[in-house]
Amino acid sequence: MSEQIKIDTEFITLGQFLKLAEVIQSGGMAKWFLSEHEVFINGEQDQRRGRKLRNGDKIAIPGFGEFHVIH
After folding, report:
1. What separation in angstroms does the CA of 23 have from each of 27, 30, 69?
2. Strand, coil or helix: 45
3. With contact defined as beta carbons under 8 Å apart, do 14 and 53 qualify?
4. In 48-64, which positions are buried (b, 16+ CB within 10 angstroms) versus exposed (e)?
5. Lowest CB count within 10 Å: 34, 46, 53, 55, which one?
6. Looking at residue 8, what DSSP letter applies?
7. If residue 53 lies in a helix (H) or strand (E), which one and from where to where?
């Protein structure tokens, strides 16, 4: 089962998401985290910390879990 991450805006970036989901401690860790770990958004690998995540997107990070963005 995936963990739901609620957002209050139209979208958030992948970097913001990682912090909100408590995968990383600070936004400054996003670039390092994405260079060291695979991240899949809706089944496609994407390492861009500026990638916009919207309502309904599914994020899978092997070893950390699966997440679902809801508005």
Report:
1. 10, 9, 14
2. strand
3. yes
4. ebebebeeebebbbeeb
5. 55
6. S
7. strand 52-54
Distances in Å between the alpha carbon of 19 and those of 10, 33, 50?
Answer: 17, 11, 13
pLDDT at 49: 95
How open is the CA angle 22-4-14, to the nearest 5 degrees? 55
66, two tokens: 């699966």
* CB atoms inside a 10 Å sphere around CB 28: 11
Please give the Cα distance from 48 to 43 (Å, whole number): 15
pLDDT tens-digit series, residues 4-18: 999 999 999 999 999
